[in-house]
Amino acid sequence: MKNYKQIAVAVFAFSLLLGFSACKPKNAGSAVSSDAASKAYVAPGKYDEFYNFVSGGFSGQMSAYGIPSGRLLRVIPVFSVDPEKGYGYSEETKPMLNTSHGFVPWDDLHHVQMSKTNGDYDGRWAFGNANNTPRVARIDLKTFRTAEIIELPNSGGNHSSPFITENTEYVVAGTRFSVPPDDKNGDIPINSYKQNFKGTLSFISVAKEDGKMDIAFQIQCPGVNFDLSRAGKGVSHGWFFFSCYNTEQANTLLEVNASQKDKDFIMAVNWKKAEEYLKAGKGRKQSVRYASNRYSDITHSATSEIKTEVTVLDAKDLKDICYFFPCPKSPHGCDVSPTGEYIVGSGKLAALIPVFSFDKLQKAIAAKDYIGEFDGIPILKYESVLYGEVKKPGLGPLHTEFDNNGNAYTSMFVSSEVVKWNIKDLKVVDRVPTYYSVGHLTVAHGDTKSPKGKYLVAYNKITKDRYLPTGPELSQSAQLYDISGDKMQLILDFPTIGEPHYAQIISADLIKNNSQKFFKMEENKHPYFSNGEATTKVVREGNKVHIYMTAIRSHLTPDNIEGIRMGDEVYFHVTNLEQDWDVPHGFAVKGAANAELLIMPGETQTLKWYPTKVGIYPMYCTDFCSALHQEMTGYIRVSPAGSNVPLLFSTGKNYPVSDTAKAK
Ligand code: RUQ
Ligand code: CUA
Fold first, then answer.
1. Where in 375-497 does DSSP place strands (E)?
2. 101 C-alpha to center of ligand 1: Å?
3. Given phi > 0 = left and psi -120 to 50 = alpha, else beta, which region is 521?
4. What pTM value is reported for the model?
5. 423 Cα: distance to centroid of ligand 2 (angstroms)
6. What is the pLDDT of residues 138-186, one digit of tens each?
7. Which of 19, 346, 462, 542 is such that its CA lies 20 to 30 A from the CA of 593?
8. Ligand 1 test: best mutation among 177, 230, 332, most atoms within 8 Å of CB?
């Protein structure tokens, strides 16, 4: 029973974390003062100053809001199929969700990261992680669409991901679950964790011009859980910091067994050094399988390729890449100040917030100020790396972001508050309640070298009594605070899609002027593109029928099709002929078992359809596109297998009845 006391403490602390006694602030309903409404008010027809990209958690999507209004602008489908956009249903987008496990139609997206140039957002791409089947996605902010998804081998639970270096050199992903490497026999006892399980960090390169991602290298690390991370910046550019928990290396009942130690670690990774080793050929080629999926705005189609090799650097052998330093207690967030000098570790179970110094870290490494090793990785002395501790910040610190006046803002899950403290003297200067149990928070440009301050949004895990009830599941809440003054002020609550984890707030100016208005017809290289109504046709190849169709206000061409037979596999390749902003057409046919299409101007999209009965099937445009939208319809005739009804298609004319014959 030697650990009884530790276990009791850990269980108590975790029961707090689980929300049994999460504090509900007093005056929850009346904390918004009367001038708040005007601060969040964006007049009808006026634009918001910022975009807020918010993860959807278990919905697998990302959503874009306007700040300060809290208006939901768009849900961007990323790791889950989305009937609103046909994503994952149209033949063109299905390959985006391919993995080495086959087609995976949903996942769990936790973290959003904007691409950066010189340590600040550049408005080109947003990245997101799939937590379950480990992947990283890149969203093109011209189109607000997922442009690429790359799978990560040697990983399980891709949580400390995707975090980005100051010029988007790398997107980094640390595995949450350590697992046996993919090329080893994984059919081993689970309790051989300590011998056989490894933690892997993936460094994904991002091509400067077009953003294409590739796994540049992986670093194999000791088997622990990697939770979150941040790239160094400014003085610490060239380094990465990862919070690690379960340094107990437990494989069961982690809530107790991974909470034994007073301190876990933050791991500092010298990625410039890792690059040198890679160049010097110190990496080991490992055979693996992972999918690389890319969407083209020219072919309007995605391709999926299975890749079979990664280069792995071993942190144990290549001594000066990785260093641990202790961090109390089960650290979650690991955040880096705007100058890059301070690293803030947030121990979920700690009663203080340790702030580490990059300068001291460098000196401690040079002096080999080690207190030991963990699985071959040196552990630096806590005091040698520590800048100082924020005392009595609150309970359950999770995540920290920064403003432009030298302040840090930390979310406190257990005490349900945001705590503002000064980076230099580590004194708490303000605190404000959240409703309730805040997880992530974000400040405008709050993880960059030049934060904008102004607004902070808290993303809460519990919302009881904030909104009209909606059955057993209540919508999650985001709360907007004005942080421009000395005192933080709550100015707005707004519901979110799915469960929000991390989010970022970016100046609208960086995105709005580049927004793509439509796709140019002359650039369309889709293999089943029709460049006008004159080139529409219906082609039979055995039991496959390809319908080259066009849509324009307010008709489909062809809109009468006969000669389809039972047993046919029918492909509607619909090109939207419009060349103007905001004129999508939709497409649906009765009995379609996958979904509908939504086709943007100049784009071609394909719906695959198996007719299930002989008869007449209506089809129509599903997007209200003009006053005559209800007229944008057509019919398809399906005859029995082996029928001799000729293949006929038309718009605006009728064939003589004799041509269309009767079914045999
Ligand atoms: S997590 S509530 Cu998945 Cu980013 Cu911290
Ligand atoms: Cu096209 Cu309605």
1. 377-380, 386-391, 397-402, 407-412, 417-422, 428-433, 438-444, 453-460, 477-482, 489-495
2. 26
3. alpha
4. 0.94
5. 56
6. 999 999 999 999 999 999 999 999 999 999 999 999 999 999 999 999 9
7. 542
8. 332
